[in-house]
Amino acid sequence: MKKKVLSTLLAAALISSSMAGFATVAHAEESDVSGKTFAIVIRNAGNPYAEKEAAGFQEVIEAAGAECIVKSPETATADAQIPLIQSLISQEVDAIAVASNDVNALTACLQDAMAEDIKVLALDSNVAPDARQTFVNQAGVQEIGQALADAVLDISGGEGQYAILSATSQSANQNSWIDAMKAIMEDEKYQGLELVEVAYGDDELQKSTDQTQALLEKYPDLKVICSPTTVGINAAAKVLQDNGSSVKLTGLGLPSEMSAYIGETDEFPCPYMFLWNPEDVGRLAAHTAIALVDGTITGEVGQTFDAGDMENSPYTITDCDDGGSEIILGPPFKFDPSNIDEWKDIY
Ligand code: RAM
Fold first, then answer.
1. Which of 174, 180, 210, 304 is the most exposed place for a label (fewest CB within 10 A)?
2. Residue 21 C-alpha to ligand 1 middle, in angstroms?
3. 10 Cα: distance to centroid of ligand 1 (angstroms)
4. What atom of ligand 1 comes closest to residue 253's alpha carbon?
5. What is the predicted pLDDT for the residue at 191?
């Protein structure tokens, strides 16, 4: 009798230990990235947009129980990003997310990373398709180009000179948005507009300020400046307001930096602008990196993954127009006098 009880107890113990083992394995397969290290390389230190992206990334990685490394280059150049990526390869991190400063110049070092089985993804500003597993894009390139082209048309009253104040000349995201704008503006509807110059403020406040002043001096008939960079639009807004200029401004800006410049009357340089939540760009990049590391996705078009409590989760990987794949966060959002106060404390 005693023997029977003992063997029953033993069998129960074996079953429960094997079930416990099974449960652990199943959990690991679901997503167990504790002990893994995820790195993000932002575009440049001192860029509040880039810092918000990093904060969103870090929040999700740490909530998943993994380690997060944030690398911030001194300038918005590929040369400043390459040594940071190389040091992450030596540290044997599990994933690198990079907001690139040059579409091609990071290819060799990102391929070195992938050869070491490090998962590589771009966010915000893309790299070449063979230098990444996938790309977390804040919004569709065409949609951003269309929103900016229509804003210039509307704010100028349909005709006249406009200039673009961009980040660096090598910047993949700004260049793709500017190219989309130019293609859209081939349409007859935009024929009254003349693009006089694309200036580059290198995502530095002082240089963007100097470039805005130079545009105002060179083109006395300028009607609109369109700045598709948060650093540029912020610098330009201050110059226009300080000078009491009649030139109007639109582009992509952080509500927290631009609320003082958005309004209906002449004292406000910016009637409206667009953006998305940069923290969400970082959060989605983190969920993507986790899904790459835990094997849920490889970056192929059509794969789907869970992004926690993010609004559009689950996300599906789609075709990117460069031949690689991408994941789009959502549409660009318009900020104007009616809603800017709601958003200025959010991001
Ligand atoms: C700047 C950076 C960033 C871009 C935003 C809109 O902060 O250039 O890469 O996405 O603007």
1. 304
2. 47
3. 62
4. 6
5. 98
